[in-house]
Amino acid sequence: MKALWRKQVFDLVRPVLLALALSVSFQASSDSSAVASAHPLATDAGIDILKKGGNAFDAAVAVTATLAVVEPYSSGIGGGGFWLLHIEQDHRDVMIDGRERAPLAASRDMYLDDNNEVIPGASIDGALSAGIPGVPAAIEHIALNYGKLPLTVTLEPAIRHARTGFKTDKHYQRMAVFREKALNASPEAAKIFLKNNKAPEPGTLIIQSDLADTLSILAAQGARGFYQGELASKLVTSVVKNGGIWSKEDLASYRIIERTPVSGNYRGMKVISAAPPSSGGVALIQMLNMLAQFDFDSLSQSGRTHLLTEVMRRAYRDRAEYLGDTDFVDVPVDRLISEKHAKTLADSVRLDRATPSDQLRKVAVDANKATDTTHFSVVDKEGNRVAATLSINYPFGSGFVAEATGVLLNDEMDDFSSKPGVPNVYGLVGNEANAIEPGKRMLSSMTPTFLETEERIAVLGTPGGSRIITMVLLAALEFHRGGSADSMVNLGRFHHQYLPDRIFIEPDVFSESLVTALFELGHETSVLDSTFGNMHAIVFDRKRMKLDAAADSRGGGTAAVLH
Ligand code: DON
Question: What is the CATH number of domain 70-124+256-563?
Fold first, then answer.
């Protein structure tokens, strides 16, 4: 009776205590702001907009648009993305879903031949592989609903870099070599992004006059200027002429969706992350929930690596089975991120032995290739935050530029499961939940995330296809251990995705003895030739009111703190 009374009183005062705790130790504003992105010109654009009095959301618009110009192999206005926003004055988090949609004429088997086999390249190269872009709509949505400055101001840096050009680097060259064939199949793309049909040498100036005009229309007219009228007609005409299936209705009916992010808790750390149609947040929380069932910190290094592999395996199995666009299919999100489900999954983990993936329940695959996409993070003085992961999918997307628009189209249709059980370009398998349907959003792994402890807040994310979610997991654990923004982004990485049943490891990350110990536990391992990911993170220390930002040393990005 006494216990019940105490509980009732506690329930009554809990909100007050929570509010007090928030106001005392959960300080979110400071006298500085920060931007971390994959290109120095994009970071500079974000900082310039903050200096002009813009907030984090204005800066995010500027960074999004600038990356679309200077990192054309990663994201663009012909692509999509997820912007996770924290609006400090409302104590609210929201996910702006600007993911591409399947065209209305799309059909479940559109990438299969007469023998029901997946047609190689059909969902990766050219106009047929492009979903309906979400970035232009997201730019306007964020500016109108959350920003303070007009698009004519926030898009100015992007328009300038498109008009006067930017200089390529080694990474540009590598990506262009990788996609030379697809780019050469589109005369407009070859003209803009190649030199004499070859990947340009580093230091080459890339001028995008048509894109500058398109961005200027977006700045002056808003999203309407892109999705309706003359520009929309040009896009549709060019796509259809080149084998695509877009219609004017596809563009006119595209809408941004505001979604509630998924959230969870790992040993006192709150996790706020991407909701479906990304699988990122669900899988991330599932993995952390499973880890919480074990005394992770007391394990040896091989024990921890083994356990991490086992939780990755189980989360990616669920991803393949259940995840898709919740506007089209029922995804049991609450069940998947529940503690009860984590306990059931954790019950089958043996600490002394790997569980072969084929013992879990089926689906088949092969390994990954070079990929692209981009992530940036912004925090402003008021404590507003943005974690945005944007994509056109493969490097240079579909390789197709719609005539006289400068718009390089995505090949995000490959993120659908073209055929249940057949892996996509990232080796990921899916089933009915992620089958193609007209107007549906394809499943993503992009995982823009906020982490919050009593002392600190992190804003992070990375590109990397199927490996995005496990990279964010490793960085989240590093943050939980007290690691800085720099140590989070530069941590050595490894990954398991259920199928193929193999741990992929960055070069020079695991010692020989660790690899041997994993082998003895029953794991197959592959040390890769190159690193993966390009993480950008900002960490805010609530007590010291200090911001710390970091760009992944694997990429060419920069991080800047503005005092
Ligand atoms: O949405 C997705 O999951 C993929 N389109 C992301 C692709 C990607 O990260 C490629 N990056 N390196």
Answer: 3.60.20.40
